[in-house]
Design a protein that fits this description.
By secondary structure, the chain is of the alpha+beta class. The chain contains 2 helices and 3 strands. It is rod-shaped, with a radius of gyration of 19 Å. This is RanBP2-type domain-containing protein.
Length: about 60
C-alpha cells in the first residue's frame, strides 16, 4: 500500500492570497468616523455616520 502526504500547493496558496485581496477591492475608510465600508453595501455613504464618500475618505 502506498501513502501520499498532501501538502497545500504553492499555486493554491497564491490563489487564496489573491482572492482575499480582491475581496477588499473598492473598500474605503470614512474620513468622518474611520469606519471601513464595503462598496457593495454602502451606496457611497458610510454605514455608521452616513457621510458621503469624498476626496478625504481613504481607499482601503
Amino acid at each position: 500500500m502506498t501513502y501520499h502526504i498532501h501538502e497545500p500547493s504553492t499555486t493554491s496558496t497564491i490563489v487564496s492570497i489573491i482572492a482575499s485581496a480582491l475581496s477588499m477591492a473598492g473598500w474605503w475608510t470614512c474620513c468622518n468616523c474611520d469606519q471601513m465600508n464595503n462598496p457593495a453595501l454602502t451606496s457611497g455613504r458610510c454605514t455608521v455616520c452616513s457621510h458621503s464618500k469624498c476626496c478625504d475618505c481613504k481607499a482601503t
